[in-house]
Give the backbone structure.
Amino acid sequence: MSWMDRLSNVFRGQELSRGLDEELEFHVDARIRDNIKSGMSAEEAGRDARLRFGNRTLTKERTREMNIFASLEDLAQDLRYALRSLRHSPGFTAVATLALALGIGANTAVFTVVNGVLLRGLPFPKAERLTAISYKPRHGPFEPEPGMVDGDYLAFRRQNQAFERITTFSGYAVTLTGAGDPLRLPAAAVTPDFFPTLGVTAAIGRTFLTEEDQKGRDQVVVIGDKLWRSRFGMDPNVLGKTTTVDGEVRKVIGVMPPEFQFPSDAGLWLPLEVRLDPHNSFLRSAVGRLKPGVSRQQAQSELEAFVRGLPPGRGRDRGAMTAEILPLKDVLVGSIRKSLLVFAGAVAFVLLIACANVANLLLMRAAGRQQEIALRAALGAGRWRLVRQLLTESVLVSLGGGAAGLLLAVVGVPALVAMAPAGKIPRLEEIHIDRWVLAFTFGIALLTGIVFGLAPAFQATRRELHESLNHSGQALTGRTAGLRGALVVFEIAMALVLLTGAGLMLKSFMRMRAVNPGFRPENVLTMTVDLPDSVYRTPDDLKAFHERTLDRLAGLPGVVAAGAVNWMPLAGPLIMGDFQMEGGRKLPPGFLADKPSVSPDYFRVMGIRLLAGRYFGAQDTAAVPGVVIVSRTVARRLWPGEDPVGKRISMEDHPTAADWLTIVGVVADIVQSDLRKQPSATVYQPYVQVPQPFFLSHMSFVLRTGFSPQSMAPAMRAVLREVDKDQPAQSVATMEEVLGATIAEPRFQGRLLAAFSMLALVLAVIGIYGVLAYSVAERTHEIGIRMALGAEKNAVLGMVLRRTLALAAAGIALGTAGALGVTRVLEKFLFEVTPTDPAVFGLVAAVLAGAALMAGLVPARRATRVDPVIALRYE
């Protein structure tokens, strides 16, 4: 038979069926005639012929199965029958679809984020050849991003053989003026090779020329599409126009495409010349594009050879440095990868619980259809055909759950992203539902329908025909009860693992929230300002700005006190380092201290307690000898058992007589950088005595008010406009908001795991209830006999609840063993909590046991209300 003939068979189903009937009738008649010729009677001949050819329907089915295209018609029949069957069981269909929708929807939402952040390639040509080049300290007080210091970058670029191009860059914030109101926005300083290395070009105009990183030729800027639209009105003639960036007038030479915002959502790019500075060394990100045919391992070998050839005496311990060639995408998403994988694992558990629920529903449904299945088998349907029919129903339910889950994900993805702390999830522009998400959703739905439909299908088709037909439709009790119980145990175990993880995260969050930061954040409003060195060129200019701002802020109605600090606690970067002690004494090995510069009223505003000596005062001006205040940790480490007031230190490596600073006070420790770390050793200086502009250009002003601090935000911004209308505030926030931002990530992780865990718990409780309710219905006759023989209601209640506790105990035991292993992946995220915290494990086990008992209580009470007379008629 040709392929064209087979294809035409698909559209000639009824004609083929009639043909098969005629052919079978011909063979039966021929056999009857042969039997009559051999001496049989007409009745015997017909009976013998029919026995030899067997079930005519089955013979037709087997004949049709030889044709793959005819099987398509069978599949269509299965689909029609499955749809009719599901339509006649709306309760089952709705519950199963909803359970799968919740599981698949949660997985689709998380996969959408994982796909956009981790799986989708970078939006650059041949992005797999882009790598980060890094040679940086392995250990230290800071955790720098992968990068290279200036000298190493220049040396490696000169001798490299593995890369087509190499570039370096750094991201920071700039102030834009001359295009509407002053605007603070993220920017990047990049070498001219930056855009060619990434393989991107400007949508309008051009990017930097090779010589445009040189002084005098670097007054140019490339702007992003968002900035072009918002501040330049999408002007097609924007090229050649000027704007002011950090006080310097620059000419616009190009506009980048909408999708290009690298690095860190940059809104504009400035040229960077890398020059060696004998006094300072800057660590910047470095990226290279590998030459065709060169592997990352070859580039790694070249970098390691370069490191081995570095000359000695450069102030580095090679054993404490790390040389790495890393995929650029891994660097961009490294901080969020583990969190996303943990969430993906959590929602996978939710899906497994939902699938176990649906498998149980399918088992119960199949058990109630034994007579129907047996009748179809008696009429000639083979076991595979019956299994196929039941699988078709489970796949339809699963695909319906997948479609509903996709709708839930459409709503869930924006909610998931909105829950995350600002700036925590990179590549937000890549997070959206696309064909890969659709393929994942319906792929997982199809797989779910098949895998979790197989066991009920095979279980339902294994009974003997006479057994099923003789039971008049009674549901099967023995063989499926054990499998249903095992599925419930599995659900409880999975739910316990999730609940334990969520419990550990929530306890960790509560411990972090309870940390005393050492200051009083309530009723404190903050405003951070960055002043450009092109406008504020000298320390005196900077100090004059700060003094004018503080005077105006202190005079606002309702302000109790106003202060300033260059590096505000818990607000990001800070300056730290060592210092010299009078008398030639050495600091303890590795001892470093934070070095904030503050105004006299800063301690009063923040509520930092004075332990000895005095605070700074109006007398501590630039004209008098320098003074400092130290924290309790500094005093105890450097002068144990002594009064440090009156001792002297110096911030200079080789101090002169004028460089010594006298300690005038000791204050309480505060948490300066991270609530998860010990309070910092801190040395405070009055900002008016600080000579370095770098210490003064970034300043946070703090107010303590007698009422809600948020109401003072407009007045605080108005003061800034009065002092300098061209300087926007980098941020205005209450200190409680700043404190909350430091625990935003663990709060997000805990909330998300808690949401998944609650969903898992609800599904597990529904599963327990369903199994027990069905079990009670199955055992109605048995319960009736027990009650007729004198069993008390309490005994019947206890019988059902013991079954509940047995399932719960097995699930809790299995789940505890699993949680002991799985929760270790959370160790990095926990604060003052161990992954095996017994209190959390005990509480979760108790919650699950209680939830199981509550789920079993309704079926148990129903069992006690069974009427023995009616129950005895149940058979």
